[in-house]
């Protein structure tokens, strides 16, 4: 049963002609009628089923305006790197002892960073971290010796972008409380990353089939993308 709040939202917005991001953000914000600061979310469906290969995005984008979320970052590293990790702003820093805690199911963090030297040991708990999307990955910048950069990135607005088996991608570009300009900057940053990623695949036709903008408790609107991908 729909709430009174939901019943007041616009109906059949998916049938409305698509519009540009700058025109849609005010409409999306108008529909943010809950008491909390709703996320503004981008939802895409890509043409991932290709004849010769399947498109599987997994990358990160550093949102220039941040995400509005407080991220708890953990670092697994050798003893000699612990001070660097703590000085970088990591919330949890550990080595073998921390890996043992993970083995016991203690996953009280949002992002995990690991130095290359500790990855062999951390891989032993891959079955615990993997299903939750917490396993560090060199491609995503979370397996590195540059702990300062990695910790700063995850705590100041780094977002992972990946598609599921049906080609769906969904992620936040910020909060209702963000200015329109900040949301547009984040949208453009994500779009640039998607454009770069497309170059890594042989795609017949357009990569992005459908694109929508919505809020946490709102309704979806079709987006007219800046250019065809």
Radius of gyration: 20 Å
Number of individual domains: 2
What share of the residues lie within helices?
25-40%
* Name given to the CATH architecture of the largest domain: 2-Layer Sandwich
- Structural class computed from helices and strand pairing: alpha/beta
Could you tell me the number of beta strands? 9
Pattern of helices and strands: HHEEEHEHEHHHEEHEE
- Strand numbers in spatial order across the main sheet: 7-1-8-9
Inertia-based shape: globular
- What is the CA-CA span between the terminal residues? 39 Å
Supply the number of helical segments: 8
Unreliable runs, pLDDT <50, ≥5 residues?
none
The main β sheet shows up as: 4 strands, antiparallel
- The whole-number mean of residue pLDDT values reads 91
CATH class of the largest domain: Alpha Beta
User: In the CATH scheme, what's the topology name of the largest domain?
Assistant: Ribulose 1,5 Bisphosphate Carboxylase/Oxygenase
- What would you give as the CATH superfamily of the largest domain? Ribosomal protein L1/L10, rRNA-binding domain
How much of the residues is beta strand, in percent?
Answer: 15-25%
């Amino acid at each position: 049963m729909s709430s009174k709040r939901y019943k007041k939202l616009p109906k059949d917005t998916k049938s409305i002609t698509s519009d540009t991001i700058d025109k849609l953000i005010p409409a999306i914000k108008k529909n943010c009628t809950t008491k909390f600061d709703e996320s503004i979310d981008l939802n895409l469906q890509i043409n991932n089923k290709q004849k010769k290969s399947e498109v599987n995005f997994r990358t990160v984008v550093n949102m220039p305006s941040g995400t509005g979320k407080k991220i708890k970052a953990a670092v697994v590293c050798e003893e000699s790197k612990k001070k660097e990790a703590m000085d970088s702003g990591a919330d949890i820093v550990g080595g073998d002892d921390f890996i043992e805690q993970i083995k016991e199911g203690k996953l009280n963090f949002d992002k995990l960073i690991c130095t290359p030297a500790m990855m062999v040991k951390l891989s032993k708990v891959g079955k615990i971290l993997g299903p939750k999307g917490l396993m560090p990955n060199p491609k995503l910048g979370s397996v590195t010796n540059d702990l300062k950069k990695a910790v700063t990135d995850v705590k100041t607005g780094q977002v992972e972008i990946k598609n599921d088996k049906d080609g769906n991608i969904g992620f936040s570009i910020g909060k209702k409380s963000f200015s329109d300009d900040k949301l547009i900057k984040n949208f453009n940053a994500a779009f640039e990353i998607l454009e770069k990623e497309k170059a890594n695949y042989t795609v017949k036709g357009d990569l992005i089939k459908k694109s929508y903008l919505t809020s946490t408790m709102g309704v979806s609107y079709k987006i007219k993308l800046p250019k065809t991908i």
